[in-house]
Amino acid sequence: xxxxxxxxxxxxxxxxxxxxxxxxxxxxxxxxxxxxxxxxxxxxxxxxxxxxxxxxxxxxxxxxxxxxxxxxxxxxxxxxxxxxxxxxxxxxxxxxxxxxxxxxxxxxxxxxxxxxxxxxxxxxxxxxxxxxxxxxxxxxxxxxxxxxxxxxxxxxxxxxxxxxxxxxxxxxxxxxxxxxxxxxxxxxxxxxxxxxxxxxxxxxxxxxxxxxxxxxxxxxxxxxxxxxxxxxxxxxxxxxxxxxxxxxxxxxxxxxxxxxxxxxxxxxxxxxxxxxxxxxxxxxxxxxxxxxxxxxxxxxxxxxxxxxxxxxxxxxxxxxxxxxxxxxxxxxxxxxxxxxxxxxxxxxxxxxxxxxxxxxxxxxxxxxxxxxxxxxxxxxxxxxxxxxxx
Amino acid sequence: xxxxxxxxxxxxxxxxxxxxxxxxxxxxxxxxxxxxxxxxxxxxxxxxxxxxxxxxxxxxxxxxxxxxxxxxxxxxxxxxxxxxxxxxxxxxxxxxxxxxxxxxxxxxxxxxxxxxxxxxxxxxxxxxxxxxxxxxxxxxxxxxxxxxxxxxxxxxxxxxxxxxxxxxxxxxxxxxxxxxxxxxxxxxxxxxxxxxxxxxxxxxxxxxxxxxxxxxxxxxxxxxxxxxxxxxxxxxxxxxxxxxxxxxxxxxxxxxxxxxxxxxxxxxxxxxxxxxxxxxxxxxxxxxxxxxxxxxxxxxxxxxxxxxxxxxxxxxxxxxxxxxxxxxxxxxxxxxxxxxxxxxxxxxxxxxxxxxxxxxxxxxxxxxxxxxxxxxxxxxxxxxxxxxxx
Lengths: 390, 390
Prior knowledge:
With about 400 residues, chain A is α+β, with helices and mostly antiparallel strands. Chain A contains 10 helices and 21 strands. Chain A has a domain at about 1-115 and about 175-245 and about 335-390: FAD/NAD(P)-binding domain (3-Layer(bba) Sandwich). In chain A, α1 (about 10-20) packs parallel to α6 (about 180-190) and α3 crosses α6 (about 180-190).
């Protein structure tokens, strides 16, 4: 049996794929879906994320985004959902190179709320515009599909954008999904497959003869298995010798009677980056702070202030919206911003952690790596790379 | 029997005083203590409030503040609380002209959390400073005890104030209380006296032969009495012909491990006024917006943004604090900003409403007016003044 430690979007996805393969699995989590997956905005945006990262992560992101439509379709079917919001694209649609296509007539806000209308990255000042231009050149070199837009063209796409927006980049292939619906669907799918869910905290690994053979639980007891998959996100570093640290993110959900935006919008304001993700049900997600604060998950006055200030700057109309929800989550950060996926080096222990800001995007790829379907990309995520450092 | 419509701080205070006088009373409210009293900061600050109002309201406020210590002491005794946080001042203490004295050794945060350490009104720019100087001259003329302070003196009193504070006015007699503890104590005191509380919404008044004889309830039924006291706050205008309108206020509670302030601080920032009220239990209340939005009680992105922006400007250290609570309440506003207290003109109907921003401060005076103890001040609040207008 495989013991999956962690019931976030990564752990649940791994459990679900393994269960579909006919393997016996058990999931351990005191409160499934309540960690970083609960806070996450759900951007599936490897292209616009290029701003903040390097080529290896882009490769992982693009590969995982291509897997999302099939992943979503299978998950929706397994969970008994009527629709995913998207059909899995058998052939490439001309406007969306990664093959996501909106299902004709699929009502927004149903299913997983998976949407593929692209990300618009906007610039305010001349400096921002120059940085965006450089980024566009870099993306061209990588062969990524992006379109340069003037301020007027940005506002034609998104009329609620601030008049001071000077220009933008459209990444038409970027998509997004509602992570809370994904974890709910995964839990339903697992339940329908009879996968046991142990609602307890794993406090340590059980070692026998140099191998990991299970986990200890709080307040007592243990679960044993042939293999332990550590998918405990920011808490992974407390259970095994893996360099994962918590990176705090505060994120806000606004409620909009009319949708203010038709796609994800992001921008740099006063040097800090903010993004706005519209949901089919009228929710508008505003994220997110990035703070090195250890395991602190307090929503602070300063965090809220930054989000509100930057969101207002980007889309002034947000001031009228109701504040529905504010939470802080802990991303599992790694030294090189790449996830840690695969055999740990200790027999019986496998890692599926360190996804930082990309757990939702990278969940399908993570399952594929663990099932041996992506050997080349698996090398980028191999846990062994950190052993060389120490 | 008296039927009190409204279980906020005013309605409950009236019911409690009447019950203490031996009168049979019944209180009607679907959710006592959940309206404006739940949102209120609890400033008992008639002097610093002079900024925003006129002489009649100042007279009411000062008279009611003088009643607060005895009111609090009796309430604490009746509710079985150990301490009010203050002793009722039998003689005037030299530094607090209204006679509030901190009980020696009274632990902060217990009882009603009544404190009398004054309000500090601060100015940022030269214009603010000039306005504060004018206000000080006006207060001198009224004989109100205020002290002019330099920026350095302000920071000596409150070291967490922003370095850009240029000067201030200290109103040493101003006090504050925790309104949620006051309504809780009132509910306990009423329960101990056996006063019935009907948890239902009053939807209309019962009229017979030109007199009010009770109220109709939702979902059905009625309560009859010799006298109906309308203390329904912002909802009063829907039940009787009294010119009360809702004035929305959004207010935030922050949680502070160490107290940032030792007294109430207020200031004008970018032309909008903000105040910070420290509680004994480490809570820091930041208030409040004033919005004419009808019966809307949504917490909005814009409201939160204003509060956070202005609080940061006044006390930069708030950014580190946890956001514990954000609510919107509806103040009962009147055309002249004075409350409406006394016989309505219709037999059987008495008003105790329209307290706008001053319900907590004016509760003791309101009960005194209704019990015939304050005939001169009663004239200022007489409902008849609006009949002359129409």
